[in-house]
Amino acid sequence: MKLLLALARGMLARRRRQTLVSVSGVALGVAFFIAIASLMRGFQTYFVSQIIDVQPHITIKDERRNPLPQAVEIAYPEAAIALNGVKPVDRIRGIRAAGDKIAILEAMPGVAAAPILTGSALLRYGSRDVSATVTGIDPQRYVQVANLGKDMTQGRIEDLRSTANGLIIGVGLAQRLGVVLGDTVNAVSPRGVALQMKIVGIFRTGIVGLDQGQGYSLLKVNQILQDRSNVVNQIVLRLADVTRAETLAREIEARFGDRTESWEEQNANFLNIFVIQNAIMYSVTGAILLVAAFGIYNIISTVVFEKTRDIAILKSLGFTERDIQLLFLLQGLVAGVLGAVLGCVIGTFMIEGLAQVRFGVDAPSGNDRFIMAREWQIYAVASGFAILAAGIAAVIPARRAARLDPVQVVRGAA
Amino acid sequence: MTLLDAEDVTRKLPEGPVLVQGATLSVSGGEFVAITGPSGSGKSSLLYLLGLLDRPSVGRVRLEGRDTTGLSGDALAALRLARLGFVFQFHFLLPEFSALDNVLIPIRRRGVLDERTARARGMELLGMLGLADAAAKLPEQLSGGMRQRVAIARALANDPALLLADEPTGNLDTKNAAAVFDIFAELARSGERAVITVTHDAELAGRATRRIHLVDGRIVSDEGQGAG
């Protein structure tokens, strides 16, 4: 093996420039793969962590995934049924027995749950009207499932309790209304209930939609505002282990019957985009590596062609077909490994270079740069691909070399 | 001691031409055999058959009493590595490796000797062929005669029972050619080893202890058998 490696190195060294070109091809493919994968992974990881950070991991809603079947449909499951003049029942929406459900959920390990009631309201201050979503929360429970406590810039969540009809609003919303801490706004719900509410806190999440259109009050207060006493229309959950979200959501839905969405389901559109992004990335870099593999195929073929005499003498000396095949396979692998190592180095430089780029715009989330993922897995995948491609590219010429008949070569040379 | 036994060996190409027709011969240790004949008479083909580089269409070749018919390619390769040595008209040294490294290739491939012993053996062979000073040189830095002697040293690396040479002096001047034949005669003299060489040079063939003459793939004369 050592001998074959020495022979392989000797043969490649003879074609130094050509070897260098194929090695560079592999290196570039690997480097681009690493840089692009790092960029994409970094962005996706950041995005997902933002989602996980900001949104509830699981949301239980006051609706069912599929409409309840009509009684007649249950009675005659196989029949074709036409119902005329069906009137929807006007019942109060909300999660039934929310208190019991929360007790069950909180008994699960690693789960924090909070009941909320969301509804819209028109906030009026002076001559300004701004419509907003008001979420009624139980402060003690809500801070366990959301980052509201962390996001507060003025006031405290606890002030909701100490003030009658207290309201916490986003920084953008405060600007639009022109209110400051301590001001009183007039809130009107679609049901016509009007309440005087005092601004007891201002928060900033970095997400424009929330900062400009979200307010929080006590659950009780919002139930009055929305004219829905004792109604909870969502239960939001936060998990210690985010990866369990989807399975747990399915369990909860099966148990309670309420529509239960994990963060993955709620963001399926983004996550699907990531899948497509990754597919594009892999095909582009795969194409680069494919080209690099052709380069390796080319050089190994050339070496085999040039080295027919050496192959013949090695075989006459007693090298087996396997030895010869391995000899040229090794050359491909050597080129692949060199390319992978060089590519990892170049890729690292590219990552650090991209990390230096500044966009000069102050994105709402406070990011003006690429977020790069520096994961060893990316390097491993890129190198593995490159070496595999190099090996496969070398197999064909290596087999040709192994099959060479020394007698014919010697005859031709004599 | 009979080293090599060829029995009614015939080699036909798939396209029809017969290269070797019914050759029967046996070679013993100490013999220095010259195969002669006009070009196209099948000298080299016979040598390749005797050297297990090629398989006969009919007949059998025995090496040291062992029938090689039906052996796998790998088994034949192993026999060539351990028991046979080849020298060709062209030296076929690997250009990237020094004279010593070229000689060491078969030793290292066989892997019986440790690296130190192997190098000592390689130097001993080069010294025996008057190339001690050329050990570190690349083939392109050597003269034609020296290269061919390095090739002989490489053929002898694993101490083969049989040295086979195909027109080994074809690219050499008279003086170097004579030197090569002297070496062959010397190698055979010990009695352990046999040397078989193909040559078209009648004068050089005269130095061999036995001469086999081929015409159209058939052995027409075999002089001096057993004279070794």
UniProtKB/TrEMBL annotation, chain A:
This is ABC transporter permease. Keywords: Cell membrane, Membrane, Transmembrane, Transmembrane helix. It holds the Pfam family MacB_PCD. The keyword Lipoprotein does not apply. InterPro entries: ABC3_permease_C (IPR003838), Lipoprotein-release_system (IPR051447), MacB_PCD (IPR025857). It is a multi-pass membrane protein. It is found in: Cell membrane. Belongs to the ABC-4 integral membrane protein family. LolC/E subfamily. Residues 19-254 form the MacB-like periplasmic core domain. The chain crosses the membrane at residues 20-40, 279-305, 326-351, 376-396. Residues 284-406 form the ABC3 transporter permease C-terminal domain. The keyword Cytoplasm does not apply.
TrEMBL record, chain B:
PANTHER family: ABC TRANSPORTER ABCH.1, IMPORT ATP-BINDING PROTEIN. One of its GO terms (molecular function) is ATP binding. Residues 4-227 form the ABC transporter domain. InterPro entries: AAA+_ATPase, ABC_transporter-like_ATP-bd, ABC_transporter-like_CS, ABC_transpr_LolD-like, MacB-like_ATP-bd, P-loop_NTPase. It holds the Pfam family ABC_tran. This is ABC transporter ATP-binding protein. Coiled coil: none annotated. The keyword Transport applies. SMART domains: AAA. It comes from the Bacteria. Keywords: ATP-binding, Nucleotide-binding, Transport.
